[in-house]
Write a structure and sequence with these properties.
Rossmann fold, disordered N terminus, 13 helices, 5-stranded parallel sheet, single chain, globular, 47% helix, alpha/beta
C-alpha cells in the first residue's frame, strides 16, 4: 500500500461550554425560546431532554440555553465526566460512568447555594453515562423539581434512559447535521484541511465524529483500511499492521462498521457489532479481535 500522510493530532476543538458556534437545530432552540418567553403566563417545562446521535451539537445547544437562563455563576450546576468523583470525593474523569457520588455532591452544593431569586440550571452531559444509582438520584429531583430550576439533559441513546426519567422530561429529538452544515463547521474549526464528501458522509451527520477522527488520525487509518480491503495482494501481516493501528483507541473500532457500510455488507454488520462489543466487554486483546473482523470483511469481498 502506498504511504499516506501522517495524522495531524494538533487540533484543538472547543469544549461545548466555550463553543459559541451552533450550527443547525434552529427548530429546537426556537421551541425553547418560545417557551421561555411565555414562562410568566405558561409555566415552562422544568426538564428538557436533548436527544440525538453523539457529536451533533446537543451539549453546545444545552450550554447555549443554560447561559440564557441562569442568573449567577453559583446558579449553574454541571454533571459530566470531567467532574466525576468516587465515594471519597476523589476525581475520576477517566471513568466510563458518572457515579452517584457525583450526583449527590451536586445536589448538596445546590441545596447549600444561596438563592438569588434567579433561575438555576442543572446540566447533565450525558444521561447515558449515569449509573443506575445516579439516575435514581436524579429521578428523585425530577419527581419534585425545585422552583425556578431548569434541567437540561443531554442524551445520546433514549434506550439508555430509565423510563421513569424519560417520562418526566420534554423530549426534543435533534437530527444529524446535513452535509452543508458539516462543511460550515469544518471551515470554521479546521479550515486548513480539505474535508472531502466521503469523509462528511462517513461522519453520519456528526461533526464530533469528524473531530475525533482528526484528533486521533482515524481518517488516515480509515483510508488505509479501505485500501487494505481493496488490495487483493494484502496478506495477514498487512491486516495485522492496520489492526494494531485501530486497536490503539477504542473510539476507532467503529471505523470497521463504517468500512462494512462502505462495501454494502449489511449482513456482516450485526456480527461485527457483536465482535466489537466483545473486545470491550470481555477484555480481549483488541488487535486480535480487530484482525478477525477485517479478515471476515475481506472474505465477503
Amino acid at each position: 500500500m502506498a504511504p499516506r500522510k501522517k495524522a495531524n493530532t494538533g487540533y484543538n476543538f472547543p469544549h461545548p461550554m466555550e463553543n459559541e458556534t451552533l450550527v443547525g437545530h434552529a427548530d429546537t432552540l426556537k421551541s425553547f425560546l418560545d417557551a421561555w418567553a411565555k414562562r410568566d403566563t405558561h409555566p415552562i417545562h422544568p426538564v428538557w431532554m436533548l436527544t440525538g446521535p453523539q457529536g451533533i451539537g446537543k451539549a453546545t445547544l444545552a450550554y447555549k440555553i443554560a447561559k440564557l437562563v441562569y442568573g449567577n455563576v453559583g446558579d449553574f450546576f454541571i454533571i459530566d465526566q470531567d467532574r466525576n468523583i468516587d465515594k471519597e470525593g476523589k476525581s475520576k474523569p477517566d471513568s466510563r460512568q458518572i457515579s452517584v457520588h457525583t450526583v449527590r455532591a451536586m445536589i448538596e452544593r445546590m441545596q447549600m447555594s444561596s438563592m438569588s431569586g434567579d433561575w438555576r440550571v442543572i446540566l447533565i452531559d450525558s444521561v447515558d453515562q449515569l449509573t443506575v444509582a445516579a439516575s435514581n438520584a436524579i429521578l428523585k429531583l425530577l419527581e419534585e423539581p425545585p422552583a425556578k430550576t431548569l434541567f437540561l439533559l443531554v442524551v445520546h441513546q433514549l434506550a439508555n434512559v430509565l423510563p421513569t426519567v424519560r417520562s418526566r422530561a420534554r423530549v426534543e429529538k435533534m437530527r444529524p447535521l446535513t452535509i452543508s452544515q458539516l462543511r460550515e463547521l469544518c471551515i470554521k474549526f479546521i479550515p486548513e484541511e480539505d474535508i472531502g464528501t466521503d469523509m462528511l458522509r462517513l461522519s453520519n451527520g456528526s461533526f464530533g465524529k469528524i473531530a475525533n477522527l482528526k484528533k486521533s488520525g482515524g481518517d488516515v487509518i480509515y483510508s488505509e483500511l479501505i485500501d487494505l480491503l481493496n488490495d487483493e495482494r494484502a496478506n495477514s501481516s498487512d491486516i495485522m499492521a492496520v489492526a494494531k493501528k485501530i486497536a490503539t483507541d477504542p473510539a476507532l473500532h467503529t471505523i470497521l462498521l463504517d468500512a462494512i457500510a462502505h462495501f454494502g455488507l449489511a449482513d456482516l454488520y450485526p456480527v461485527a457489532t457483536h465482535s466489537i462489543a466483545d473486545i470491550k466487554n470481555l477484555y480481549l486483546e483488541p488487535e486480535i479481535g480487530i484482525f478477525k473482523i477485517i479478515t471476515e470483511i475481506k472474505k465477503c469481498l
